[in-house]
Amino acid sequence: MNKIADGVSIVLLGSFNPGIFHPAWFQKEELLPEIEAEAAKIEVISHDIAIFTVAWLRIEAIGDRFVAKTMDESKFGPLRDLVVGMFRLLEQTPITTIGMNREISFELSSDEQWHAVGHALAPKPIWEKYVKEPGMKSLTVESQRDDARQGRFNITVKPTPSKPRAVTVDFNDHIDIKDDEIYVTTGKACKVIEEDWEKSIDRSLTVANGLILDALQVNNK
């Protein structure tokens, strides 16, 4: 089993002003260096939507959703710092929900191992009465949290698109930060991200590695 891709994202739900999220603003506020901001590839920046990428980062914002994502493992910490830095500046932004997400893809050594993961996680006998040659396209399991946060964990296992003998594990650390009021502003969200980011990153890797290795072990018994 060989890890071939690893990316993280921070997703915030609330009420945003996409027009702010221009690379020039990130440069002005010293969130991105000048060389990265000037080289940014802008897909769209408008009142309603903002999407751009730099060498290691993708930003997407619409009215009720903000996403920051990187596929560079060396930038997991900087991604957290960027998001926290942004919303400490935009301190009146209403935020209700945080998603700290990790997507890890593994290449398996043979077709047999690749099929073994699906057989272990989604046993075929129960399906064979109803469908021809069943195969697992995607399996999602929801878990209650084991900490003091409100929310849940969602784990999805699926074949990696366009990559033979590869499996992707998506780990979603979903945290609701609503109090008694409709919205809370960014201070609480930033505090949660700062406190939980490393724990979430560690948990996601443990779960992803463990699920695939356990699935392979089931097949060997």
Summarize the topology.
Layout: E1 2-14, H1 23-28, H2 34-38, E2 41-45, E3 50-53, E4 58-62, E5 65-70, H3 76-89, E6 95-107, H4 111-121, H5 125-128, E7 139-144, E8 150-159, E9 166-176, H6 186-220
Antiparallel strand pairs: 1-5, 1-6, 2-3, 3-4, 4-5, 6-9, 7-8, 8-9
Helix pairs in contact: 3-6, 4-6
Describe this entry's structure for a reader:
The chain has 221 residues and is of the alpha+beta class. The chain has one domain (2-16, 64-220). Helices cover 34% and strands 33% of the residues. The chain contains six helices and nine strands. It is elongated, with a radius of gyration of 20 Å. The model has no long low-confidence stretch (mean pLDDT 93).
**Cα-atom radius of gyration:** 20 Å
- What structural class do the secondary elements suggest? alpha+beta
Proportion of residues in β-strands: 25-35%
**Unreliable residue runs:** none
The tally of domains stands at 1
Keywords:
9-stranded antiparallel β-sheet, 221 residues, elongated, alpha+beta
